[in-house]
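Quick log. Single chain, no ligands specified.
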Amino acid sequence: MASPSAERILNGLVRPVLAIDAGGLVVYANSAAEAAFEGWVAGLDLRDLLPGFTLSLISPVGPSVQRLACRRNEAYEVTLSPLPGEGFVVELRLAAGTASVALTTERDELTGLAKRNTLMAHLDDALAQEDGLTTFAVHCIDLDRFKTVNDTLGHAVGDLLLKKVADRLLAACRRSDLVARLGGDEFVVLQRDVEDLAAAERLAARIVDLVGRTYVLGGHTINIGASVGVALRGASTQARDLIRNADLALYEAKRAGRSRFRLFESSMDTGLQERREMEIDLRRALALKQFELSYQPFIDLSTDQVIGFEALLRWTHPTKGNIPPLHFIPLAEENGLIVKIGEWVLRQACMEAATWPEEMIIAVNVSPLQFKADTLLETVSSALARSGLPAHRLEIEITEGALLDDTSNVLVTLAALRALGVKISMDDFGTGYSSLAYLQKFPFNKIKIDRSFVATDNADNEAILKAVAGLGASLGMAITAEGVETAEQLARIRSERCTHVQGYLTGRPMRPDLIPDFLKRSPSTIQNETA
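-> predicted structure:
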């Protein structure tokens, strides 16, 4: 077994050890010393690091000791031993009767940054200052799209990326700030001596900018982002409260679109309590079967006949009444409950559709998380088998979000669903960044144009409708215009050669027991309503 190197031994010491040249410049510092002085110290003058230190008192022939009163009323015993040739080894020992977090030396093995215990100790120390003049900020940082890098390029590249991120965070901060890694892709910066709110905002913006710049690692060009939540000391007296507040602000930064920062506001605390309460209610609703499905018809414009329905999730809370999907579905996406809820929707929708007239289609929205769970194919197969619904009558609707993070695996799942006979449509087409690219990668059966292009009648939207309809015709894909609410909108949709339409004008969402009566109505009745 190879002997450990001298540097490895020195870095394993709890006590800070440095080496200086004859002029007092630091030429080496072990990990404990870098932690003690909160950053890179090589090349700095020891007299700047330890005010009161004097070179003239050093003995050239043996160890000498100086007792120094330093920052935060800390007292150090500094032992200096001459090196062969020139220079000295410097050992720092906290003098008896004093205590300091500056000598806390827990370091993250991968990045060399401080670990959680070190961060919390420094926070406690900062909060203990009694002068009332010391202001600081906590920045909680989460990397955007880091998991995708790990999954596609491997953990070795992921580790290299984390090291580069650590370097950029250190570059963004001052030497007096503390940068810590809590684990995974979570980092925290303790920003000291914050003059005002603007100073904290400047650092947060700098972090978002630097971390978000392109990386080139192992021949790969990598683009990630950073979401940052910032909390100032304020009235907080506990380190965990500050971290919690910064975490809440981080959550809001992610909700706002990621790759940005948010400052903590007291209203975020209220929002957290409301989300926790709704999460409990969501779990209870799933267990007690409080969810229901409504069905909105879509019309074939060539015949003006109803050819199918889209299943829409509804939740009637026992005390709060009807809760809009926009209020609870994003939360279900965040906490993963959407996977179980989505499975229920698929099974229930297929059971209902099996009772409809033959060839009537049921369209079901599928969450990106259902694709990531790797159980979607099994769930669809099971739902079809239990209901007896033919596969060609089921239409799975996905959004671009399902394709963004793991395109190759999602496309494999979509191909397997197509092999079963299931139809696949892209929902909310035109709202993402790469919709056209996805049409090239997978032969969707249908494109659903987002309602925003239907709601406003202007030259731009008219041009987009015409272009998408033409694209669908050339690719052999059906085109559905969503959100049609007026006869004028319907006329415009017809003129642009869309093949299907869906909206309040042609049929509002309805309970399943109302569908038979709705289907008894003749095509002429629908035409009369839309004329």
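Confidence is low (pLDDT under 50) at residues 97-103.
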